[in-house]
Amino acid sequence: MNTLKAFGSMVKDSFEHVTHGSKPYHIWMIFLTAIMLIGMYCYSVQLDEGLSATGMTDRVSWGLYISNFTFLVGVAAAAVMLVMPTYILKDMDFKHAVLIGEGLAVAALIMCLAFIVADMGGPSVLWHIIPGIGVFNFPSSMLAWDVIALNGYLFINITIPLYILFQHYQGKEAKRKIYVPGAILSVLWAVAIHLVTAFLYQGLQARPFWNNALLGPRFLASAFAAGPALIILVLAVIRRFTEFKIEQKTIKKIAMIVVVAAQINMIMLISELFKEFYAPTHHSESAYYLFFGLEGKTALLPWIWTAISLNLLATVMLTFNKLRNNPKVLYLCCFMLFVAIWVEKGFGLIVPGFIPGPYGVIAEYTPTGIEIGVTFGIWAMGAFIFTMLAKTSIAIELGKLRYKRKKKIASKTA
């Protein structure tokens, strides 16, 4: 009973804390709310008109929504790069950053699920992927595996930080024997959500662009570059606007993770380019469309070459210690990597898989204003959720939110 009272008190105190703050905080939350409202309007149009309001067709049936979903799976999995050294290897340099990383993973996973709902047309069709209700087709369907992987990883990333924060809220230390097994499971699960997502694409025989043995490992490499890069940018903002100070050596260690993952990602990219263009076959047409265009169709050319240029430039700059240890250069490179991998792992992966189609038809895809509005709305929702999670976590870790136990005063009768 006391535990329930303490938990109820934490929820109440957290809600009160996130509804109060500085002027910049309120401006930020109002801005995100406005973007979410625009996204909700665009989504209402899509619900009314159906997926015909989007740029997707029967030729290109996955577009901006699934591109963002694929990218955000990597952002969510990146939290494991902080969980493993903190909870398992006991590297205390990551201690203050790990809860921020897990909060980012929760927000990213919620965004992933939102993009799936948007891509399916609406929430009314969700019953199809609910075990025991819809046609789940487990274990033969890779989509069923993906549903389990995403929701399982979301559950893990909610429960572990929640337990630790709840203990700290009560002024207690979290017990390692309770959260370490979950942390180990989250490491394995983070790898699983990426491999399962990659297998989902690899298993489609009619899409040779995705039939690549490097797809799964490259998913992981790009995730461990883009995710920690975003975490560094978020930590920089937190250091600037809050009392929660992350030591520079922590950021340096995360930066090392970023540069190694980025280098591996570039090596895999070169390997894929060699495979596609050194001895091209009919199945290389999607790659030719992406990088050089086909029959005058060049919609993705500026996107992919900008992404590769940013990726290469950021990776080279981060390789040099002097540049990597300069905060301004580091933040710029992290931003470039994040944008580059978003393009490369989103548009550069999903859309070319459909062009040309199985019958050789070249039908290009361009997202509509409705799709862009919904996408911005979902990203704003993720930022809104993460801001509230981070604000509450920081307050508990700094000791500003603590459970106030009511002391029983025994009255003495004469």
TrEMBL record:
Keyword check for Hydrolase: no
A UniProt-annotated Pfam family: NrfD
Domain of life: Bacteria
Cellular localization per UniProt: Cell membrane
Protein's membrane topology: Multi-pass membrane protein
Keywords assigned by UniProt, alphabetized: Cell membrane, Membrane, Transmembrane, Transmembrane helix
Keyword Amino-acid biosynthesis: no
Signal peptide limits: none
Parts of the chain that traverse the membrane: 25-43, 64-84, 96-118, 148-166, 178-201, 221-242, 254-274, 300-320, 329-355, 375-398
InterPro entries assigned to the protein according to its UniProt record, in alphabetical order: DsrP-like, NrfD-like
PANTHER family: POLYSULPHIDE REDUCTASE NRFD (PTHR43044:SF2), PTHR43044
Stated family: Belongs to the NrfD family.
Protein name according to UniProt: NrfD/PsrC family molybdoenzyme membrane anchor subunit
Gene it is expressed from: nrfD
